[in-house]
Amino acid sequence: MNIVQIQYFLSAVSLHSIHKIAEKYNISPQGASKAIKKLEQELGVILIERSTKGVKLTENGEKILGNFQNIMDNYEQIRLFCDGLNL
Known about the structure:
- The protein is mainly alpha-helical.
- The chain is built from four helices and two strands, in the order αααββα.
- The protein has helices at residues 3-15, 18-25, 29-43, 59-83; strands at 48-51, 54-57.
- A two-stranded antiparallel sheet has the order 1-2.
- Helix 1 packs across helix 4.
- The longest helix has 25 residues, at 59-83.
- The radius of gyration is 14 Å and the shape is globular.
- The mean pLDDT is 94.
């Protein structure tokens, strides 16, 4: 699991689309979908349902969503802290 996979997952949830996150991060839809799929495989659960109409959270995805949001919030706090250091 890595921060990029989590970022793509959270973006897929908020944008309801693999294609939109691909555009947002300037990657291919296949690359975005593959990153989320690797995250799902590592966790052993399906987080989103993919269809031609977009993506939506599975029941497991709903249960885990808050944890991933916390991880991203903490990551951003760490980045802001480090940006403020004079290294």
